[in-house]
Amino acid sequence: MNKPDPRAESGFSYSRAYFEELVDAALSHAKKLGATDAGAEASEGCGLSVSVRKGELENVERNRDKSLGVTVYLGQRRGNASTSDFSRAAIEQTVQAAYDIARFTAEDPMAGLPDAEDIASHADTQRELDLFHPWSIDSAQAAELARVTEAAAFKTDKRITNSEGAAVSAQQSHFFSAHTRGFRGGYPSSRHSISVSPIAGKGAGMQRDYWYSSHRHPEDLALPEAIGRYAAERALSRLKSRKISTREVPVLFESPLAAGLLGALVQALSGGALYRKSSFLLDSLGQQVLPAHIDLLEDPFLLRGKGSSPFDEEGVRVQPRSVINAGRVQGYFLSSYSARKLGMKTTGNAGGSHNLILSSRLTKAGDDLDAMLKKLGTGLFVTELMGQGVNYVTGDYSRGASGFWVEKGRIAYPVEEITIAGNMKDMLMGITAVGADAYNYGAKTVGSILVNRMKVAGS
User: Fold this and answer.
1) In this structure, are residues 208 and 200 in contact, taking their beta carbons and an 8 Å threshold?
2) Longest dimension (CA), the chain
3) DSSP letter at 68?
4) pLDDT, tens digit, 9 for 90 and up, residues 56-68
């Protein structure tokens, strides 16, 4: 086996060709042992994370990790093992370990590699999605960028009295994966971010907030001054927060939180939850789960998208699709295994959803946050949620919250120490508007969401 070529890809210690050799060696040894089928993936990640607090350097971390994972099938029995040692002996020991686990694992009639017709072709794997943009920033430059971000927060207003710090992160990785049913593919990718958490006020009245920017390409990141200023404005807006009495009112979820609602919907439509019957949306294919003005699209091929990929984690072909059309479920999120459990076909979602875009046919270009507050009228505008209060079996929803009380379409005052509660089925069907203030949170893009009625528990 050839030695790794450290110059092969920017910043990486191992080349794609070297990873192909590792994977082929693992698959060859699995076949030699008598495996019915096998898959393997070699990967490497590296990066830099730097944080400062009150202008002083706090942390500098460099990370570099590597791994070879192997899956061995003996009929319908499966075993997995992994190693960070790329020597020939370690690879053979890892394959042997996966083989031994498979020997003593109970048969699972649904286990196995993807069906041949679902596997991504060579042409599929070559699709260019513009995912790799290494950031050649050193620790001194990253620290200065973090300082500029935090300084911008302090300069915004003298009531910004403290900070939990600012951070800059530059990360990149690459992998190669293959299995014995003909799939071969891999690609490099990157993810970079700038963030800051300022604190406003003094004593018992202190309030904190944060903001960040995260993208594949460093040139797409927001300006550090803008991130710092906006984070400061968010913290300042929370000063003199009040409690409110218990009531039932419309609730507007700020766009980053609306992405969380979309995440709950995705979880309820995912194969694992469906075949285990731990979803509040069982048997919802073709059913109305959102109002008729709502659509949900999935597009794995968005250039520089944080959820973009030419194939899923099993090497299955992916494609853009309508998940929800006019409020009706058109498809679930399925891997090969969960699809077999449900008697269906994989949707190319092993490893999760790709780029999701939730939209309303009623949304106009001018439906920014101010317009959404006018649609809210009198009610609660939520900007922070606490806890993990979603019961995916029943759909019951209860979260600690803070935000703003809104009267006649205008923010009246900040509120805190409240709980919002409802049922996800009712909340989803009660979406009356989606804002044009679209926000990208990982693989999800959605504007602010207005829910017609929820219980708000206060003092």
Assistant:
1) yes
2) 73
3) E
4) 999 999 999 999 9
